[in-house]
Amino acid sequence: MMQETIAAIATALGEGGIAIIRVSGPQAVPSISGILKSRQKLTEAASHTVTYGHIVDVDSGEAIEEVLVTVMKGPRSFTAEDVVEIGVHGGLIAARKVLELVLRQPDLRVAEPGEFTKRAFLNGRIDLAQAEAVIDLIRSKSDRSHTVALKQAEGTLSKRIQALRHSLIELLAHIEVNIDYPEHDVEEMTSSYIKDSCGSALEAIRKLLQTAAEGKILREGITTAIVGRPNVGKSSLLNALVQESKAIVTDIPGTTRDVIEEYVTLSGIPLRLLDTAGIRETTDVVEKIGVERSYSAVEEAELLLLVLNRNEPLHGDERELLGKLANRQVILIINKTDLPERLDVEEVRTALPNSRIVPMSVLQEQGLEDLEQAIRELFFEGQLEGADLTYVSNARHISLLHRAADALNDAVSATADGIPIDMVQLDVRAAWELLGEIVGDTAGESLIDQIFSQFCLGK
Ligand code: GDP
Ligand code: ZN
C-alpha cells in the first residue's frame, strides 16, 4: 500500500550551518546509493550507521556536496520504513540542490507536510495523540510546554486513555455475557458493576479534564497585564521579569500596531505579557495616560499585576481601578518596600479581599519569588514540580473527553432507571469509541488528514 518513497528537507527553512534531507520508503537506500560516491556502498551499510561521501550529479559526474548519510532500516526508524537522512554542511542552498538530485531518482517524490509523521502513525509506530504532540513540540513556546508535549509524544496520555478503554472493554464483555445468558440472573450484580465501573472511568476522565486548564496555560501562557499609575515601578517589574525569565523572550508583533506581546517564563510558567510597549516607553505620553490606558489591557488579561507604590497614599485613579477588579484574578504588588510606608495597605486589602498581596522592592530585587509563588497558587492546584506531567492540552482531546463523560453518565442514569441493558451497552460502547478517537484507534480518515495537514514540511 505504501510503496512510494518520499523525500523532503527536514530542518528549518532558514540560515543554518547544516541541513538534513530525509528520505523514507522502500527505495530510500538504493536511490541515495545511486547518487552517492563513497568508499562503502550505501546498500551495504549496516542499519544505524553513518557513511561519509559526496552526492554526485549523475548526468555531469560532478560532485555536488560533501555529506554524511545515515541509514535507518525499518521498522527501527521514525516512520517504521527504511529511512535515509542526508546531512549537508552547506545550509539551505546546498540542501535544495541535493534534494533536487534526490528527486530526480525514479519512484521518488517530495513529501507532503506531516507525511513522515503520518506514516509513523499509519505504520503503527505512534498513535494520534502522540502525532499531535509532535505538532505541539514544534510550536511550543516555553520550556515547560515543551516538556509536556514531549511527555505526550512519549505516550503518557495515550497510556492513560488505553487503560480507560481497557476497563470499558471489560465492562462491555461483562454486559455481553449478561445479554447472552440472562437466565443466570446476574442482572442485579451487573447494574452495580456498571455503576462502579463507569464511576471510576468518570473519575479518571474528570482528573484528565482538570489538567486541561493547566495544560492550556502551559501551552499558551497566562495572558498577563501589568497595570498601575505612572512611576509605581511597572517598567522596572517588567525588566525584572524578563531578566528572571532567562529563557527565550520573543517579541511577537501583535494584531494591532501598538500592542506588543512578550513571553517570559517564571519557574516554568509561561506568562504572555500584554501591552509591554506602553510600559517600556517610560517618557512617552502613553505612560501619562496611565490608568486610562490600563483599562484596555485589563479587559483582555487573565491575570492582572496591579502595582502600587507603598511610598504614596492611594490615588483616586487607583481607588477607581480597585473598584472594577472585584471579579478578576489580581495580584496586588505593593512595590518599593525599601521606602517608608505611606500607603494604607488595609484599605487596599479591604477593596480586594480575595486578592493576594505581594510586597516587593523591585529596585532591591526583593519579592520576585513570592510573586512566582502567588501566580503558581492562583493557576495550578497542588504541586507543579514532580507531577507526572500528563496534561490534556489539545482542544480535540478535551471535547472527546467531555463527550465520553456524557456517554458514561447516560449509562449510569439509564442503569438506575432500569432501562434494558443492551441500551446501556450502547452508551458504554460510545464512550469507548470516543476515547479511541483520541489515540486514533477509531478516528476517521478525514480527521487524520486534517490533523496531519497542520504539520510543516519535512516532519
Ligand atoms: P513605571 O512608570 O510604573 O513604569 O515606573 P518605573 O519602573 O519607570 O519606575 C519609576 C521609578 O521608581 C524609577 O526611578 C525606578 O527606579 C523607581 N523604582 C522602581 N521600583 C522601585 C523600588 O522597589 N524601590 C524604589 N525605591 N524605587 C523604585
Ligand atoms: Zn514605565
From TrEMBL:
Q: Which NCBIfam families match?
A: mnmE_trmE_thdF, PRK05291.1-3, small_GTP
Keywords assigned by UniProt?
Answer: Cytoplasm, GTP-binding, Hydrolase, Magnesium, Metal-binding, Nucleotide-binding, Potassium, tRNA processing
Q: What EC number(s) does its UniProt record assign? A: 3.6.-.-
List, for all copies, the residue spans of the domain called TrmE-type G: 221-380
* Primary location group: cytoplasm
Q: Could you tell me the superkingdom of the organism this chain comes from? A: Bacteria
Query: Is-annotated flag, keyword Transport?
Result: no
- Cofactor or coenzyme needed: K(+)
Summarizing the function annotation, the protein's role is: Exhibits a very high intrinsic GTPase hydrolysis rate. Involved in the addition of a carboxymethylaminomethyl (cmnm) group at the wobble position (U34) of certain tRNAs, forming tRNA-cmnm(5)s(2)U34.
Which EC class heads this enzyme's classification?
A: hydrolase
- Protein's name according to its UniProt entry: tRNA modification GTPase MnmE
Phylogenetic classification of the source organism: Bacteria, Bacillati, Bacillota, Bacilli, Bacillales
GO CC terms, sorted: cytosol
Q: Which InterPro entries match?
A: G_TrmE (IPR031168), GTP-bd (IPR006073), GTP-bd_TrmE_N (IPR018948), GTPase_MnmE (IPR004520), MnmE_dom2 (IPR027368), MnmE_helical (IPR025867), P-loop_NTPase (IPR027417), Small_GTP-bd (IPR005225)
Q: Name one Pfam family in it.
A: MnmE_helical
* Subcellular location(s) per record: Cytoplasm
Family per record: Belongs to the TRAFAC class TrmE-Era-EngA-EngB-Septin-like GTPase superfamily. TrmE GTPase family.
Q: Which GO terms describe its molecular function?
A: GTP binding; GTPase activity; identical protein binding; metal ion binding
**SUPFAM superfamilies, per the entry:** Folate-binding domain, P-loop containing nucleoside triphosphate hydrolases, TrmE connector domain
CDD domains given in the database record: trmE, TrmE_N
Where does this protein hold (6S)-5-formyl-5,6,7,8-tetrahydrofolate?
22, 85, 125, 459
